[in-house]
Amino acid sequence: MTIVLDLVSGAVVYVGKGKGADALKAFWRRLMRSGARIDAVAIDMSPAYRASVSENLPDAAIVFDHFHVIKLFNDKLSDYRRQLYYKVSTEAHRIVLKGTRWLLLKNPENLNEDKNERQRLEEALNLNKPLATVYYMKEDLRTLWNYPDKIAAERFLYDWIARAEVSGIAMLKAFAKTCANI
């Protein structure tokens, strides 16, 4: 399903069948008849949605929501951790990496001290510098949505992309390219 919400009121404005641009055709017709003025649209990073919004609302700003950007990064981080697991040379390193997937994906403020999650995460990050780099870049990226204005957010994002590109880590370079192209 494709769901369109009014971000100000939270009201569901439209529900379309499917997950592509075709699911929005009836919405666009109704929107154009209504004469509503749309300044900005928050969407996931789907190229189909981006193209549909650009075609139907060429003057509207497109905003990628925090959830979908971080989810995409977390998917890449999980794949990266899995690759590292199979590359490490000792069983001790494998044991440490094996239990870290959810720790890497959790927000640091949600780590459970009773289960020593912070300590276990730090142990894994100390064992593998590239994993630590990817993890801390994820945490840094999460701050993008805290910037007070577009200019400050753009400066931060350009800096984040530059740091990812020079990291020497293919996964970060690929994600930086994705961010640079949006």
Q: Low-confidence runs (pLDDT<50, min 5 residues)?
A: none
What is the count of distinct domains? 2
Task: State the end-to-end CA separation.
Answer: 23 Å
Largest sheet: 2 strands, antiparallel
Kindly describe this structure.
The protein has 182 residues and is mainly alpha-helical. It contains nine helices and four strands, in the order E-E-H-E-H-E-H-H-H-H-H-H-H. It has two domains: 2-64, no CATH class; 67-180. Helix 3 (66-87) runs antiparallel to helix 7 and helix 8 runs antiparallel to helix 9. The model has no long low-confidence stretch (mean pLDDT 92). The chain is elongated. The chain is 59% helix and 9% strand.
Compose a concise summary of this entry.
With about 180 residues, this protein is mostly helical. The protein has 9 helices and 4 strands.
Indicate the topology:
Blueprint: E1 2-5, E2 12-16, H1 25-34, E3 40-43, H2 47-56, E4 61-64, H3 66-87, H4 91-98, H5 101-105, H6 117-127, H7 129-142, H8 150-165, H9 170-180
Parallel strand pairs: 3-4
Antiparallel strand pairs: 1-2
Helix pairs in contact: 3-4, 3-7, 6-7, 8-9
